[in-house]
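Bumping with the actual sequence this time:
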Amino acid sequence: MIHPPRRHFLKLATALAASAALPAAAQTTGQAGTFPSKPIRLIVPHAPGGNSDTFGRILAQYLGERVGQQVLVENKPGAGGTVASGSVAKGTAPDGYTLLVADNGTHAIAPTLYGAKLPYDVFKDFTPITLAATFPTVILLHPSVPARTVQEFVALAKSQPGKLTYSSAGTGNGSHLTIELFRTAAGGLDMLHVPYKGGAPAVQAVLAGEVQMTAVSVNTALPHIQSGKLRALGLASAKRSPALPDLPTFIESGIAFDGDSWLAIVGPAGIPAEIVAKLNADITATLRQPEVQERLARLGLVVVASTPAELTAVLQRDVPKWGKAVKESGAVVE
């Protein structure tokens, strides 16, 4: 029997290895090239009607038109958005077909508020896609409060320690922690926190004069400011809002803090880089459409449309910032 030379076997083995690798490489390229080839699920971790839900539905409509596939919004409320966030992080395939509308509550406040009980790691268990939009918070006062400026309010609070009260949508909620940031930045104001079960009753409590102060998003604040039923103390943001151009930020008034909230799009960890790039390109292009920006502006949202790296940088900044506010507030999840 004549045996082929050893170099023949080496060449054959090399050729077989190369051919075996081709399908996987071709599959990855094919996935990115044809993505999406079926509907995308966009998980909103809160109940219908809020900022994240309305934002998600606007994005879904226009993104679906852009990519030629349905984008299906699914509301999964529970535990401040952490239930849905955990299900996306741990229970979905990293193929780009399941995305989450994350926010600073689920991804910047929750790590400290829930601690070891949080079912996910915001840095390890998600693929960042884009920081979609920000929305500033307004701190509102009942008209009976005898303070017209931030400085007057700070002086009033210091002269009456423990007497002034403020409402929130719940302990550890963004509305609670925004005022915690304000209290600390203003020199440690001694005020009484009164938590309510949701944003609507928290605002109603101020309207009824049960408490003197609360913090809400710009779009929620606008009708109450315009009607004169509540008075804006300041904007808890790094810059002024187009919706309230005459309202100074707290930074402008000498109180160095901002409580900007944000919405972002993330997916489970491990989404291929090619699909992440495609998602980022399509979502940011959608958000930058004038009609989309106009509709979001009516909600008080300012489009950002960042890169994945920029979203990661925001998380690296905000997790410690909001974590400090959680610790100082004493808020815990039992």
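The tokens above came from a reply further down the thread. The chain has eleven helices and eleven strands.
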